[in-house]
Every structure is written in structure tokens, then in C-alpha cells.
Amino acid sequence: DADVTQTPRNRITKTGKRIMLECSQTKGHDRMYWYRQDPGLGLRLIYYSFDVKDINKGEISDGYSVSRQAQAKFSLSLESAIPNQTALYFCATSFQGAGYTFGSGTRLTVV
Amino acid sequence: DQQVKQNSPSLSVQEGRISILNCDYTNSMFDYFLWYKKYPAEGPTFLISISSIKDKNEDGRFTVFLNKSAKHLSLHIVPSQPGDSAVYFCAAHRWANSGGSNYKLTFGKGTLLTVNP
Fold first, then answer.
1. Were B80 and a residue from A42, A84, B58, B115 both cysteine, which residue would form a disulfide, CB within 3.0 to 4.6 Å?
2. Residue B8: pLDDT above 50?
3. pLDDT score of A95 more than 90
4. Which residues of chain A lie closer than 8 angstroms to B103, CB-CB?
């Protein structure tokens, strides 16, 4: 089993719909992150959490919300999806300041 | 304001030759640098890192060089292999304990490396 699991792997949704992307990890890491990747724009940070009670906005948090349900689970929600949120979404974990372990990504298409 | 810059979107090299991927940064507080490799349909995976107290770190075919005065680092792959074809991301953060917000990685836009047989 993967250390960082993202579900779903692919999702097509309609404009205005609410959608949740889920991330779970078995590494025991305290820190979790959500990034999105767009062609030519690299990886941009949406939200991050350093423990269950700590949630922080990243550089592009507008239109997104997160929930850290447990140390091992960090979900990303799009309350009302719009087409420019079509992207590849990655969850990552780290132990304090060490390097990240990424999930395999969720490809989201908003039509 | 882009703090980590990879100015070459793509690079093509012949198998067996050297690949050099470049990265520049603007934030002088960064003191730890990493390279990630990403294949299509997979998440990025850690490749190699370097602390600002060093100017070189080597791991097999991969070597990262850091020039702090120029705020520049490079990844050398020798010899390049077709399996090295992927997107390479440069990333940086501040390792020193200066508050939790500095532990998050800042990524460049990535460079697509193609190694031709």
C-alpha cells in the first residue's frame, strides 16, 4: 500500500458542484499539504497543516477549504467548483522540516 | 513573486551525455534545497538535497551544486539515461528553527528533461 493515498484518482465534476478530495497517510508524519499543479506553473501550495489543530492558508487558498480529521487524514474541498480549478492535485506529508512524500495525485476536471 | 525559478521549461539531451538542470532562488533565508523528479501520472519523488553549509552533494549519477553567492543551484545527471526523462522540480525552504511557516517547500515551475536514445 502507498504511504500517501489520494482518492479519487480522477474526477470529472460540473461547475457549481461541491467536491472533496481525500488524503490519508501511513507514514506517521505530523505535517500535511495540498498542492495543485498546472502546466507551466509548477506546484503551488493551497493549504497546509502542521498538526490536527493547525491549519494554514497557502498561496492560492481562495475557493478551497480543508479539514484535518486526524493526524493521518487531510481533505481538500471545493465548495463550488469552477473550470479554472481543473488541475492535478497533490497531497504531501513531511515529518517536521524534512522532505516531502507525495501522493499519486488526483486529476480533477471541472466542466 | 517567484522565489524559486527554473527558467528552462524543457531540456533535451542524448543518452550517455550530461544533463544540467538549473535553478535560481531569490529568498536569501532559504538554507535547504531539494530536487524532485516527476513521471506522468505519478506524484513527485525526492531525488537529492543539499544544505547551505555545503556546495556539492553527490548520489550516484546525480550531483547537486550550490552557489550561495549567486543564489543558484544545478543538478547534474551523468550519464543520462532514457529512464531519466521526467519533469524535475527544484524546491527550497528554511530549515533553521525560525517558526513553523518557514518549513513549507517552495517549488519552481519544473523542467521537462527528455533523454533521447
1. B115
2. yes
3. no
4. 31, 50, 94, 96-97
